[in-house]
Amino acid sequence: MTKTFSKGDKVEWETSQGTTEGTVVKKQTTATKIKDHEVKASKSDPQYIVESAKTGKRAAHKPGALHKT
Fold first, then answer.
1. How many CA atoms lie within 13 A of 34 on its CB side?
2. Measured by CB atoms within 10 angstroms of the end CB, which terminus of the chain is less buried, N or C?
3. Is the pLDDT of residue 19 over 90?
4. Integer Cα distance of 6 and 35 in angstroms
5. Does residue 12 come out as left (phi exceeding 0), alpha (psi in the -120 to 50 range) or beta?
6. Cα-flanking dihedrals φ and ψ of residue 47, to 5°?
7. Which residue from 22, 60, 24, 68 is spatially nearest to 42, judged by alpha carbons?
8. End-to-end CA distance of the chain, in Å?
9. Is 0.70 surpassed by the pTM of this model?
10. What is the DSSP letter of 38?
């Protein structure tokens, strides 16, 4: 079963520096870019735009990479 998140949910994910916490900004269902990174999201394969609590930077993650805190 696919995980679902809502705008404002507090989540965490793993990075090369360890666990990072942040907030879900939105569910992305179309292709887009964040800086120079292509986000290949679609309705059948959505990703979530999250904002890091520490740096304020935004990134896209697949639902399986995120965990509610």
1. 16
2. N
3. yes
4. 23
5. beta
6. -130, 165
7. 60
8. 19
9. yes
10. E
pLDDT value at 21 more than 90: yes
Tokens 């999201």 appear where? 41
* Residue type at 6 in one-letter notation: S
Q: What is the pLDDT of residues 48-62, one digit of tens each?
A: 999 999 999 999 999
* Long-range Cβ pairs for the range 33-41 (8 Å, 24+): 34/58, 34/59, 34/60
Q: Are 43 and 60 in contact (CB under 8 A)?
A: no
Q: Answer for the pair 47, 28: CB distance below 8 angstroms, yes or no.
A: yes
Query: Which tokens go with 45?
Result: 């394969």
Question: What pLDDT was estimated at residue 35?
Answer: 87
Percent with pLDDT over 70 in the chain: 97
